[in-house]
Amino acid sequence: MNAAATEVETYEDYLNNDYGWRSWLFTTDHKRIGLLYLVSITLFFFLGGFFALLIRLDLMTPPGDLISSETYNKMFSMHGIIMVFFFLIPSIPTVLGNFFVPMMVGARDVAFPRLNLLSWYLFNIGGLCMLYAVVNGGVDTGWTFYPPYSSNFSNTNVAMAVTAIFIAGFSSILTGLNFVITIHAMRAAGMTWFRLPLFIWSIYATSLIQVLGTPILAITLALVAGERLLHLGVFDPAYGGDPILFQHLFWFYSHPAVYIMVLPAMGVTSELVATFTRKEIYGYRFVAAASVAIAVFGFLVWGHHLFTSGQSIFAGMIFSLLSYAVAIPSAVKVFNWTATLYKSSVSLQTPMLYAFGFIGLFTIGGLTGLFVAAMGVDIHVTDTYFVIAHFHYIMVGGAVMGYLGGIHYWWPKISGRLYPEIWGKLAALIVFVGFNLTFFPQFLLGYLGMPRRYHAYPDEFQVLNVMSSAGASILGVGYILPMIYLAWSMRYGEKAGANPWPATGLEWHTPSPPPPENFLEPPVVTWGAYDLSAQPDLANRLKDEDRVYKAALRAGARKREELEVEPPATGA
Amino acid sequence: MPEHIVPIKTYTIVLVALLVLTATTCAVSFIDMGKINAVVAVAIAFAKASLVALIFMHLRYSRRLMLVVAAAGLFWLGILIALTMGDYLTRGWQ
Amino acid sequence: MAETVVADRHAPGAARAHQFDNAEQQRDAATMGMWVFLVTEIMFFGGLFASYVVYRALYPMAFAVASQALDVVLGTLNTVVLLVSSFTMAVAVFGSKTGRRRLMLGGLALTIALGLVFLAIKFYEYYQKYAERHVPGPSFAFPAPYTEQAKMYFTLYFAMTGLHAVHMIVGCGLLTVLIVMARRGRFTPDYNSPVEISGLYWHFVDIIWIFLYPLLYLIGRHLE
Questions:
Q1: What is the CATH number of domain C45-223?
Q2: Are A212 and B72 in contact (CB < 8 Å)?
Q3: Which of A49-63, A182-196, A549-563 has the lowest mean pLDDT?
Q4: Model pTM?
Q5: CB-based burial of residue A502 (10 Å sphere; 0-12 exposed, 13-18 middle, 19+ buried)?
Q6: A3-534 falls under which CATH superfamily?
Q7: I need a labelling partner for A569 at 20 to 30 A (CA). Which of A83, A189, A293, B7 fits?
Q8: Complex ipTM, two decimals?
């Protein structure tokens, strides 16, 4: 191969170093595993979205005329299960975390690469079990699986669904474990804890939650399966059991789980705000500490899901108080991002649009969380559309926008290509408009009394429901557009350099797409996380390095040609 | 980091202690002390577990971070049990 | 400079796996990884322990009476067996650290043997429970007035000891693999992480039993 003749373009990166299905399915490269996850969770996202589509279609008219009430129960159950366990919880950690945690700390890979691949396989095995449950007639217990309905009375595929989540849960645990060890043990020379990007702090806090909380979910769902299959009766009142014990155990995980979903998006937002304001994040240490505080406090508030369940009033009061406390670190982050904007140089590129969307919508979602944290108000709005709007503002307005923002931000690094900016901005705008049109009316619906999980409603709610359904269709368009133009960019997009934005952070100190072992030489870090002053003339310097690197590769290729030596095997 | 190698003699002493504690907890359980029975049983169990963790599992000779990790696991379980029992114990209150 | 340098994996202090910079980092990562995994196991068993605490607090008498139906001799014997097996495991790790291969192999083999003894006794106990119709299910029978609540006790008994037994079986399997690897000379004083971290796992399973024993077997002895 005449390497000398080909100019800048070909060098060994993680995508072209090996070909064939085996190089993907048996890879231990964290970057490839991140892309494998990208494919899996995108498929589940659209499956979960399909169920949402059917829900919103049925809710266009007051009577339940599109699907029967039993089928409707299955629709919202499967929408919830798939979106929560097979999209939101994995999304940022498994795609962006897998790809960038090693790079951002300056390592060659995660601590346990084969365990990483196992995580992906476990995720898909769980996913297949869930697909089986879906195809075999669905589940209708709600994603919350409350007994005694789930254990004794439901005639749907509960055991298969909880098995699917059990398996996917272990995928989540192993991913979290991998990141904890990677961040502790594999930071590059000079990369002290307080020089780490805030994305790493968020992923670290998320991983702590995954490790500490998910096992409880696993054993609790196993007990439900045990009740169904072996008639064990741990939550069965006939044997002195208490269904509320299930709720305690379930929400002990599932409340921190919402922080698994939102903390990584907060981490992405920190990166985006720093890059697109060309400034250090205001109060870096406070934001880092807030991430850990959210993870810790998040474990102390689960009883606010049990306010109306029969839990003791006194326990409810404690949980209510603690729920107000957990809002504080989140607010600290919002204040600090906003303060970063002051006297900064804001660049409204696509990722920054998503970051602004996150900050605004997460704030609304978080503020409405204060409504439901008050026991008195919660009696009125619990199990209504108010709660649904509250958590969708955080999950979709927050977590999904953070995810999309991160995908767009790191897309040049992942693919080596730039997407068309005009389409990026358009899709972000469509998502924002569609999202608010879908979910803001739901606050009003809930406050006016429309219950959740009902497929029919009184006539006076129809206008707001139609607005919501219209918004959902717009939102759908906003989600499909990036699929198209990102795929397009992989072939036809303009080539991205090492640092197109430009940004600080070790991942931008290596070519796009990155080489198989991430860095040419192990990095040595002597600067703070977003310290532009330590990297003057950043963009130009990196352009030079890019050229030097590629010249070295060409020289190496020429040398190999002379000696007729095989190219080096990729580290495995 | 130089690895500390624990001598077999230390392991033997710990094993003897564990067996003594086992005999104790078994014998004491036959004596009626009301609610104290449960406290003593759990206390002895914690003592045995600590011996296994600190000596057999080398926690005493490991980085302090490992101790923090182990303690965190126990503490988190404690949160689950404490706050859940907080519900059950106060249900009867007026 | 453009070529990937393949590190000599057998140089002193070199890491065996490419993502690590040196052997010490690899060992640290393995140890920390196992401890974090054990924390997940604490929480996994923890759900059952939490359920136990709740129901024992609600039904103290029923639990005490039902507990008397367990064989305290076999339970105590099993406890001794596991404690000794932890000792033999620690000896095996000592052997791997000091390069004393026969000590390591002997320790591992004894540990597995004791684990199998534990499992045998356990399954005999299960059989006893089955024969006395104390297995929760359609044929469950227990004297009034504690019938239903005793069923809760036995459900927890089987769930907790059953999960523990599954972990024992996995542990025996792990140690068997270790013996195979050890006989092939894979472990040296420089590289014995697999033995050490398997030891951590084994000791942890022992610790679970250290708690299960008094909580399940010794509740009602003072009432006999």
A1: 1.20.120.80
A2: yes
A3: A549-563
A4: 0.93
A5: buried
A6: Cytochrome c oxidase-like, subunit I domain (1.20.210.10)
A7: A189
A8: 0.94
